[in-house]
C-alpha cells in the first residue's frame, strides 16, 4: 500500500476532455487501420500505432494516467527488492515437484485400481 495521501481537487472536467480525446485518437487509429485497406500492411499498422501512442500520451496527463505512472514506478521499486532464486535452487525445487507429482499420480492410480477391483469386479457381481 502507498502511504501517500490522495491529493484532493484537480480539474475533473479537463481530465474528462483529455480522456475523451484519447478515446477519439484510439478510435481514429483503429478506423485508419480498417479504412486504408489499399495501403501496405506495415503502413496500416503504423497508422494504428500512431493513434494508440497518441491516445496513451494524452491519457498520461490525466489523473488516471498520473496514478498509473506512480503505480508502475512503485511496482518497479518493489521488484528491485525481490530475491530471485539461484539456478541450483530452481533446479532442486523443480526436481522435488516432479518427484511429488510422480508419487501422487502412482498413489492415485493405485487407489483407482483398488476401487475398480472392489466395486466392479466384486460388489457388482455379488448380487448375480
Describe this protein's structure:
- It contains four helices and no strands.
- With 128 residues, it is mostly helical.
- The mean pLDDT is 90.
**Major sheet:** none
Beginning-to-end CA distance, first to last residue: 68 Å
Computed over alpha carbons, the radius of gyration is 30 Å
Helix content: over 70%
Strand proportion, as a percent range, falls in: under 5%
Give a short overview.
By secondary structure, the protein is an all-alpha fold. 79% of the residues lie in helices and 0% in strands.
Indicate the topology.
Blueprint lengths: L11 H24 L5 H19 L3 H18 L6 H40 L2
Helix pairs in contact: 1-2
Key descriptive features of the protein:
128 residues, mainly alpha
Amino acid at each position: 500500500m502507498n502511504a501517500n495521501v490522495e491529493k484532493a481537487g484537480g480539474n475533473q472536467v479537463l481530465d474528462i476532455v483529455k480522456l475523451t480525446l484519447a478515446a477519439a485518437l484510439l478510435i481514429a487509429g483503429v478506423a485508419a487501420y480498417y479504412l486504408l485497406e489499399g495501403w501496405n500492411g506495415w503502413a496500416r499498422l503504423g497508422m494504428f500505432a500512431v493513434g494508440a501512442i497518441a491516445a496513451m500520451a494524452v491519457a498520461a496527463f490525466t489523473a488516471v494516467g498520473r496514478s498509473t505512472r506512480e503505480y508502475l514506478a512503485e511496482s518497479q521499486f518493489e521488484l528491485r527488492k525481490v530475491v530471485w532464486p539461484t539456478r541450483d535452487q530452481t533446479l532442486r525445487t523443480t526436481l522435488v515437484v516432479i518427484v511429488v507429482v510422480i508419487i501422487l499420480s502412482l498413489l492415485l492410480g493405485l487407489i483407482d485400481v483398488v476401487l475398480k477391483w472392489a466395486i466392479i469386479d466384486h460388489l457388482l457381481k455379488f448380487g448375480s
